[in-house]
């Protein structure tokens, strides 16, 4: 994978990026609805996507035929301030998108592994592959919840797993996580990586230049390398 194998969408301002990403995602979802009667969208959490979610919530598309889920989730209940489901419900599930079907990943189980097994079964009932997946990236090169210090990183990045959702234990993650698996992400018909700021641009360019063996590359690079369609990079300063 190198810079020319990606579709770059660069903007001067974050609000322009949010408008365009929302428009591109909405178009892909509506196209999926027109071709097969439904569409699936998986979004990431964190601090970057709020403006994009707000813009997407106004899209005039057939939201009642769309299912939204998360790329990853912290193992906390929706009432918790760190919940990605909370973020999505506050920023995306409103306006035109208010009634969309949302499938969270968190379950109130004793162990994150049990929650992963339950959500794996639930998202496994979707029409696969997903139509749209929007990823973020951390400054450590993680994407989804594929943290470089995850105890089971190679399992998380296993391209042959049949699991759709996996549990994650990683010191740097803050709490146990739930994440879509690598094949669930990279098989998306439209795969977008949404990053903002110079630091993340530098991290991305560094990871694209990695020459070491595959297993030593950052998780973001491993995902981009495994993508079945040309990944779209959305960036603003
Ligand atoms: O649960 C999460 O935190 C996200 O899904 C995660 O993968 C996120 O995309 C990156 O950590 C970037 O987060 P920021 O947007 O906060 O920089």
UniProtKB/TrEMBL annotation:
Q: Which reaction does it catalyse?
A: 6-phospho-D-glucono-1,5-lactone + H2O = 6-phospho-D-gluconate + H(+)
Which processes are annotated in GO (biological process)? carbohydrate metabolic process; pentose-phosphate shunt
Please give the Gene3D superfamilies that the UniProt record associates with this protein.
3.40.50.1360
List the signal peptide residues.
Answer: none
Domain called Glucosamine/galactosamine-6-phosphate isomerase: residue spans:
13-226
Classification via SUPFAM superfamilies: NagB/RpiA/CoA transferase-like
State the source organism's domain of life: Bacteria
Pathway in which the depicted protein is active: Carbohydrate degradation; pentose phosphate pathway; D-ribulose 5-phosphate from D-glucose 6-phosphate (oxidative stage): step 2/3
For this UniProt record, the keywords arranged alphabetically read as follows: Hydrolase
Oxidoreductase as UniProt keyword:
no
Instruction: Tell me the GO molecular function terms.
Output: 6-phosphogluconolactonase activity
Q: What is its EC number?
A: 3.1.1.31
Q: What does this protein do?
A: Hydrolysis of 6-phosphogluconolactone to 6-phosphogluconate.
Entries under NCBIfam families matching the protein: pgl
Regarding protein family, the annotation reads:
Belongs to the glucosamine/galactosamine-6-phosphate isomerase family. 6-phosphogluconolactonase subfamily.
Q: What is this protein called?
A: 6-phosphogluconolactonase
The taxonomic lineage of its organism, from the top, reads: Bacteria, Pseudomonadati, Pseudomonadota, Alphaproteobacteria, Hyphomicrobiales
């Amino acid at each position: 994978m190198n810079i020319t194998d990606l579709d770059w969408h660069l903007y001067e301002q974050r609000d322009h990026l949010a408008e365009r990403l929302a428009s591109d995602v909405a178009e892909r979802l509506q196209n999926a609805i027109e071709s097969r009667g439904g569409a699936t969208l998986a979004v990431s959490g964190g601090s970057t996507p709020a403006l994009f979610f707000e813009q997407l919530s106004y899209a005039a598309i057939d939201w009642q035929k769309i299912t939204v889920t998360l790329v990853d989730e912290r193992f906390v209940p929706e009432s918790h301030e760190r919940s990605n489901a909370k973020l999505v419900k506050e920023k995306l599930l409103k306006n035109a998108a208010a009634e969309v079907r949302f499938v969270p990943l968190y379950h109130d189980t004793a162990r994150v592994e049990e929650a992963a097994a339950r959500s794996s079964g639930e998202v496994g009932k979707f029409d696969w592959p997903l139509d749209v997946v929007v990823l973020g990236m951390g400054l450590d090169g993680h994407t989804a919840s594929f943290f470089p210090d995850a105890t089971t990183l190679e399992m998380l990045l296993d391209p042959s797993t049949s699991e759709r959702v996996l549990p994650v234990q990683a010191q740097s993650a803050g709490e146990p996580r739930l994440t879509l698996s690598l094949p669930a992400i990279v098989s998306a018909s439209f795969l977008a990586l949404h990053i903002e700021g110079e630091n993340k641009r530098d991290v991305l360019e560094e990871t694209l230049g990695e020459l070491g063996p595959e297993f030593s590359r950052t998780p973001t690079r491993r995902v981009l390398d495994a993508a079945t369609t040309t990944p779209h990079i959305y960036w603003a300063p």
